[in-house]
Structures are given as C-alpha cells and as structure tokens.
Amino acid sequence: MMKRVRTQHLMLPDGAELHYVEIGQPSASRPSVLMLHSLFFNGGMFLPVIQALQNEWHIICPDHRNQGLSTAGQKPATMHQLAQDYAFLAQALQLSSLHVVGSSMGGYVAQELMQCAPQLVRSAVLSCCTSMAEQQKERFDQLEAQLRRDGGAPYVSALLQTMFGDAFLASTDLAAQAQQEQWRDYFTHLPPSIANSVNGVFARPDYQSLLAGNSTPHLLISGALDRAKKPADMEHMHSLLPDSTHTVFEQSGHTTPVEVPEAFALQIENFWNQVN
Fold this sequence. Notes:
By secondary structure, the protein is an alpha/beta fold.
C-alpha cells in the first residue's frame, strides 16, 4: 500500500517559508524521523525509500532553506542555520526525539544538529559525507561561480555524473530510469540562487574533533561507486565515533537513497529497530 504524503509549510523566525512533506503520525513509543536531502535535490528524494519501509513511521522530509519549495529568508543557508531551522521545526511540531537521516549535504546538517540540539537526536544515519572541512575548495568555488552565473542547465551532465554512480546511470530498470529523468529535469531548472546553498556546503567547518564525544548511535553508509566522497571518508568517521556501524553499497554512487532505495530502507529500518 502506498503511504500517504501530506504537504506542509512552516514560517521560520526570519521569514523563510519551510516546505516539508509528512508521512504518518507521531508515536509515543518511538522517535519521529527527519530526513535531510542532498545538495541540488529536495525532500522528495527520499520518497522511494519511504515507500520501501516495512513499518509505519512518522517521517518529516523538508526542503532546505533556499532549495526546493522552501524560500531563502533573511539568513544565509549555512549548515548551522539549517540545523537551527530543524530544531525550530521539531519544537513547532512538539517532537522531542528524532532518528535523523542525512544524505551528503544533509549529513553535514545532521552533524550540526547534534551539536546545537544533542538531546533531540536519538540516532543518526549519515550517507556519503565526511567529518572534514571541504578539501577541494578551489574546484567548488568555480562551481559556485558557474551556477551563480548560469543556473543548473549547462551543467546537468556534470551534476548527474557527480551525484550518481555508473550502475544507476546505466540501469535498464524502469523505476531507476524514471528517477534519473526526474532528477535530470530538476537539475536543468536549478536557479542561479542555488549557488548560495553550494557556498553553505563548501564553507562548512571541520567536525572531526567533535566525534569522539558524540555518543549518539550512528549508521554510516557509503557508495562504492561514489565520485564525490569515498568510503574511506566514512571509514575515518567510523574510527572516531564511539558507537557506529559502517556499510558500503557496492552498486551505488553518491546518492544512495535514490540509487538503491530498497537496500537503503532495509538498512536504516534494521538500525532504527536496534536503537529502539
């Protein structure tokens, strides 16, 4: 049975309008789930994962400030500001405990959220990110400038190659092909303002010194075909965290929730059940 998706909005303190989709109802017996999307995507990237989950969960999938249907507001789209946005969202929805799932950019926001509201995060799933500050700053300064000038349309092929692995891009599976076309079209229509979000991601701080003191249970996920971040990045994070598991999807690139949604759903649901 398809899970019912409700579209919601919340006005943030600086006037930004936060768009999110909500699935299920809060439960007193287990945390709600906050799913945080990758740069260049929106909260809808998690819908195939949500439909593959076996149990009923209360799930919130926002579009980050300045992306998707959420507006920019008065504050810059830094990782810290996005974490503040989601702490405000949790308070507005009266949610006191969250399983947080972060894909790439969403993983950086999740790491910030664990610093600004540690009592809120019951567990963290981090996919294809790192605990280090950006190591290729010159490359991404150039990308930011290009997107600010042109928007996404001239760079769709490069974005597809960065965000997805070869197995997904070459797949003959109809669902995978539909997803690929959906995101190709979405990347084509990225506005020049997406450059502000690019800046937020690549100006992030280094989180390595915070990991040893972070006792939150973590599931770390990598894609063996990832061209943007390597499994070694997550293995390094695994070595520093007190309570973590690291798994590698051999047939995925950088965006595991889109490329292997059923496998992603199985891993995160097993993890949540263990934590609960």
